[in-house]
TrEMBL record:
It comes from Chryseobacterium gleum ATCC 35910. This is Antioxidant, AhpC/TSA family. Pfam families: Redoxin (PF08534). Its main location: other. The keyword Transferase does not apply. PROSITE patterns: THIOREDOXIN_1, THIOREDOXIN_2. It is found in: Cell envelope. InterPro entries: Redoxin, Thioredoxin-like_sf, Thioredoxin_CS, Thioredoxin_domain, Thioredoxin_ResA/DsbE_sf. Its EC number is 1.11.1.15. CDD domains: TlpA_like_family. It comes from the Bacteria.
Length: 179
């Protein structure tokens, strides 16, 4: 009988961790950076070779950001979850643009729609449209997809969903890891 109660309590605790978003996100935010660095995937020099047409920034190539920390986000004006996370990205950009380069790539979008979206919302984060193929290693399967890359090309964070980017955890991560 005692054994069954212990098993039941363990199942409830594990289910709570897995199913309650607040608990799951807290544990992920607390332990994710360490696990990420240890198991980080590297992107190669060829993966950086993407011609970028600047929308509110000069046109460039992603390889010009190599050897720097990069906040790399793939999004679209047509994507409600992408639009939802924009205010937090703008806040993160405002406070951390001196620590990490921001590269937001609009996907499957018309240039005029992107310009209109940025203007209507007073967003100033650098936005680009890819003019050459994107490496399979970083090509998003869902939107939004965000990568935090360190100066060595390691993918420290890959987020395939909407996230509040203006959190103390993200700020500390950028300040301490992306150097």
């Amino acid at each position: 009988m005692k054994k069954n109660i212990i098993y039941l309590v363990l199942i409830v605790v594990i289910a709570g961790i897995a199913l309650i978003p607040g608990v799951r996100n807290f544990l992920k935010d607390t332990f994710f950076p360490v696990a990420t660095i240890e198991n980080a995937v590297h992107i190669s020099e060829e993966d950086y070779d993407i011609e970028l047409k600047g929308i509110n920034a000069p046109s460039t190539n992603l390889k010009n950001f190599k050897d720097k920390g990069i906040f790399l986000n793939f999004w679209g004006t047509w994507c409600p979850p992408c639009r939802k996370e924009w205010p937090s990205i703008q806040k993160l950009y405002n406070s951390r643009k001196d620590h990490v380069d921001f590269v937001l790539i609009a996907m499957n979008d018309k240039e005029e729609d992107v310009r209109k979206f940025l203007k209507e919302n007073n967003y100033t984060v650098p936005v680009y449209i890819a003019q050459s193929p994107i490496s399979e290693k970083i090509l998003p399967k869902v939107f939004p997809t965000t990568f935090l890359l360190d100066k060595h090309g390691r993918i420290l964070i890959k987020e395939d969903a909407t996230k509040d980017w203006d959190t103390e955890t993200v700020h500390q991560f950028i300040d301490n890891i992306i150097k």
